[in-house]
Amino acid sequence: MTPTSHTTPYTTPYTLSTTVRRPYDEAVGSVRAALAEQGFGVLTEIDLRATLAEKLGVDLSPQVILGACRPPLAHAALQIDPAVATMLPCNVVVRAIDDGTCVVEAFDPLAMISMAGAEIAPVATEAHTRLTAVLTALDEEN
How many domains does the chain have? Predict the structure, then answer.
């Protein structure tokens, strides 16, 4: 499956997504490794399943939000528009569908252009290219 930024069961016009055929914990590890290969570090990690179970008493499938950041891109974007900080870091979600399948979604940085203006396009395009490479690497592991 090729990463997409159009509508599929798990994507929206503002996300990139792919499906990986591996267990959740393995998928999370693969996503972390693929992000590192593209120069992203993970600044934050939110375990949605645990958080919503604790706060609301609901049961979700395992899923995590990884707050990924590539400092040179973040700095360049902030130089153009400091309000871009509200859209940082790049959120990447890993969600278990079943015991051997996960969906990996990322906010598509190209969506920032409509919010922050055309000046941000070069930075958004590079971030989009790198996140697409992350998802492509995950596809190649399938």
Answer: 1
In a domain, 5, yes or no: no
Q: Which domain holds residue 78?
A: 15-141
Two tokens, residue 15: 């996300």
- Percent of the chain surpassing pLDDT 70: 92
139 pLDDT band (50/70/90 cuts)? confident
Query: pTM for this one?
Result: 0.88
Using H for helix, E for strand and C for coil, what is the string for the chain?
CCCECCCECCECCCEEEEEECCCHHHHHHHHHHHHHHCCCEEEEEEEHHHHHHHHHCCCCCCEEEEEEECHHHHHHHHHHCHHHHHHCCEEEEEEEEECCEEEEEEECCCHHHHHHCHHHHHHHHHHHHHHHHHHHHHHHHC
Looking up residue 127, the CATH number of its domain turns out to be: 3.30.310.70
